[in-house]
């Protein structure tokens, strides 16, 4: 059994929000320049753009991992940075951030790594007990099965391939008590078949659970499967449009001087699957 399907997705609003990396000097321009956008509860959004566009910084800011340099973030109408520490921690428990390279302890077993997603709702005793004897074995097995990893349940993390570790990180989302999923480059280490399985699973389970889903992608043809696409470049909003309106010309401007990133993408999703959103998918076919 996966996480409860009765959760309500969180709303997101950025009001002139900018953010910089913690180690950056004040004199350095922020990685994310003042940005205004909103995401409705339960909405699914793809974020694209060339390397250095600010995609990861955007997710970290929404995840309350980076405090805004200026402007504000509202989650369900509340500014998380104005909340008491305990309230901020509870809010963070409703957010799930999956980095491109998941921080999985190498000597940990896969089942423990996956069940760690449930820690925000567990007591100290429950979490310690789970290290000795995992509770929720069936749930962990089910989450891993969604990503074709059921046979890796008891495997040690350091014996998994890079792509398998990335899928373990994604499987955590299915068990997390979160209403907002922030997924950073989930397909970077996956072959086309498993990339399709991963994106299908994330979108379908998020929809069933009512979770809001924001995914950053290099694969523009996969982004075409989302109803809404946000384009970032140099930390600024280039466009925020329905997928059908993301034309070849818009993509050419977005990836100017980074054409290799656009042209080098190979479809991770068969054309028949992405046929309902032919715009960017067709563009990628032409570019390849």
Model description:
Helix content is 34%, strand content 19%. The chain is an alpha/beta fold and 288 residues long. The chain folds into two domains: 12-94 and 178-287, Rossmann fold (3-Layer(aba) Sandwich), CATH 3.40.50; 109-177, no CATH class. The protein has a six-stranded mixed β-sheet with strand order 5-6-7-3-8-9, with helices on both faces. Strand 8 and strand 9 form a beta hairpin. Helix 5 (137-145) packs across helix 6 and helix 6 packs parallel to helix 7 (192-209).
CATH topology of the largest domain: Rossmann fold
Q: Assign the CATH class of the largest domain.
A: Alpha Beta
* First-last Cα distance: 40 Å
Query: How many helical elements?
Result: 11
Q: Share of helix among residues? A: 25-40%
State the CATH superfamily name of the largest domain: P-loop containing nucleotide triphosphate hydrolases
CATH architecture of the largest domain: 3-Layer(aba) Sandwich
- Please identify the structural class as seen in this structure: alpha/beta
Strand fraction equals 15-25%
The figure for the number of domains is: 2
Radius of gyration equals 19 Å
Q: What is the spatial order of strands in the main beta sheet?
A: 5-6-7-3-8-9
Secondary-structure element sequence? EEEHEHEHHHHEHEHEEHHH
Uncertain regions spanning at least 5 consecutive residues: 265-288
Mean pLDDT, all residues = 87
**Record field, number of beta strands:** 9
The biggest beta sheet reads: 6 strands, mixed
Tell me the overall shape.
globular
